[in-house]
């Protein structure tokens, strides 16, 4: 078969055998390869990694940041007047609206990662961003809670492919102990956007334009944030990098190094498109269930705090509406800094589990402070610990699970399976704080 374009002019030592098919996938037999890392030096590799960092991480962070903002802004709208306007205080309507997002989100994450490799990251993510931005925009015009719930379902369908697709794209560019800090920088940069959610939502809720219902400030939270998301979708083809084999923004030499350096690490396998049944066969490994459960546990608390912390601050701790919106931001901002430091140490020490366990203990301590400390200041301090422990363990668990998958051909399916289980945690997190348990929400806290 023909050799990959422009690859043979960069031969490796004793020239391992190269096989390629029509899908641009190739395998390299490195059984008899020399000890050298390839026909490049460390300085050249570091320069390439910096170039990849600036092309892949920033825009994905913006995309996922908008995704987090658009799925969690419902809590800000709720305390801005949407609860009364749509009668969300009746029964479990608010919980149902939250939960239905995850019904479609859970089901479509894995199929999305099977599609992204075939259509390409730019085309697929562009479609998804415009789709979920349109759903958020539509929420600004709903007249009843049923319409809101339906739009939340479609929002989950479009957002389902963002996180697993982004993680798959990142893992296709970096080695095992290059991933934790990049997963965390990506996730925490996105979380930084969400950290300003309360401040942004408060400012938007002050807008009163139009007549009748459209003068309500909570509607403009959805309208403005949805419009910004749609606009961002049109920039995807210009700013988002593709998978290594489609990276036209690299020259031949850089593309060669980018693909080969990963190939050596994983025993000669490269990323490729595989038949559906063969891809799904990777899920039969029982160990994947452990990684999925680990992420489920972290995600349940992440979503519970994201959806209910403004409500708890307002109803339980007795802060005013303005303070409740503004005080949701500081715990997330401190989490970004601490999580990046933790991830850097994890990569530096080449250890994962001590950091995951420590962060889990910190989150438990924070929740206990929120539940049992009497002073509002002490309970508010508990939110800092709770948010840090749960949020830091989300990218930490993802990088841990992804690192255990030696064959890169399985990574897309496994990462999607883990994120699907994380969305099951979203279903748990959106239902544990029940209205009848207010104001302390003891069952939900436990």
Automatic annotation (TrEMBL):
Give the way it sits in the membrane: Multi-pass membrane protein
Q: Which residues form the Major facilitator superfamily (MFS) profile domain?
A: 56-446
Query: Coiled-coil ranges per the record?
Result: none
**Superkingdom of the organism of origin:** Eukaryota
Q: Which UniProt keywords apply?
A: Membrane, Transmembrane, Transmembrane helix, Transport
GO CC annotations?
Answer: membrane
Record carries keyword Transmembrane: yes
Where in the cell does this protein reside?
Membrane
Q: Spell out where the chain crosses the membrane.
A: 56-80, 92-112, 124-142, 154-174, 186-208, 220-240, 288-309, 329-346, 353-373, 413-433
Record Pfam families: MFS_1
Name the SUPFAM superfamilies on file.
Answer: MFS general substrate transporter (SSF103473)
- Could you tell me which PANTHER family the record lists for this protein? MAJOR FACILITATOR SUPERFAMILY (MFS) PROFILE DOMAIN-CONTAINING PROTEIN-RELATED (PTHR43791:SF47), PERMEASE-RELATED (PTHR43791)
| Protein's recorded name | Major facilitator superfamily (MFS) profile domain-containing protein
Q: In which organism is this protein found?
A: Knufia peltigerae
């Amino acid at each position: 078969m023909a050799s990959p374009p422009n690859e043979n002019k960069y031969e490796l030592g004793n020239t391992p055998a190269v096989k390629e098919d029509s899908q641009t996938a190739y395998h390299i037999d490195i059984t008899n390869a020399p000890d050298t890392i390839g026909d490049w030096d460390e300085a050249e590799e570091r320069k390439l990694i910096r170039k990849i960092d600036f092309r892949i991480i920033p825009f994905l962070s913006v995309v996922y940041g908008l995704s987090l903002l658009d799925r969690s802004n419902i809590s800000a709208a709720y305390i801005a007047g949407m609860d009364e306007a749509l009668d969300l205080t009746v029964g479990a309507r608010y919980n149902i609206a939250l939960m239905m997002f995850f019904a479609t989100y859970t089901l479509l994450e894995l199929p999305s990662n099977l599609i992204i490799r075939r259509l390409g990251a730019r085309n697929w993510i562009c479609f998804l961003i415009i789709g979920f931005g349109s759903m958020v925009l539509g929420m600004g015009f709903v007249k009843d809670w049923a319409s809101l719930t339906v739009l939340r379902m479609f929002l989950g369908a479009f957002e389902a492919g963002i996180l697993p697709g982004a993680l798959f794209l990142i893992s296709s560019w970096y080695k095992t102990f290059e991933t934790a800090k990049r997963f965390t920088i990506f996730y925490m940069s996105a979380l930084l956007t969400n950290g300003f959610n309360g401040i942004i939502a408060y400012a938007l809720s002050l807008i009163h334009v139009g007549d009748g219902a459209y003068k309500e400030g909570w509607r403009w939270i959805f309208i403005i944030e949805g419009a910004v998301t749609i606009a961002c979708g049109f920039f995807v083809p210009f700013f988002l990098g593709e998978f290594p084999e489609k990276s036209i923004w690299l020259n031949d030499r850089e593309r060669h190094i980018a693909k080969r350096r990963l190939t050596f690490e994983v025993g000669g396998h490269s990323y490729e498109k595989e038949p559906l049944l063969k891809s799904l066969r990777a899920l039969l490994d029982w160990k994947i269930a452990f990684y999925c459960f680990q992420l489920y546990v972290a995600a349940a608390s992440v979503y519970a705090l994201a959806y209910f912390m403004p409500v708890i601050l307002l109803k339980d701790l007795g802060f005013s509406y303005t303070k409740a919106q503004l005080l949701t931001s500081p715990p997330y901002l401190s989490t970004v800094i601490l999580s990046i430091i933790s991830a850097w140490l994890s990569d530096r020490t080449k250890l994962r589990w001590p950091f995951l366990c420590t962060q889990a203990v910190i989150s438990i301590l924070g929740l206990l402070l929120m539940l049992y400390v009497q002073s509002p200041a002490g309970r508010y301090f508990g939110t800092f610990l709770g948010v840090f422990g749960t949020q830091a363990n989300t990218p930490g668990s993802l990088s841990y699970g992804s690192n255990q998958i030696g064959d890169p051909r399985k990574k897309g399916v496994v990462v999607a399976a883990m994120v699907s289980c994380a969305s099951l945690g979203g279903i748990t997190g959106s239902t544990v704080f029940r209205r009848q348990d207010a104001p302390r929400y003891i069952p939900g806290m436990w």
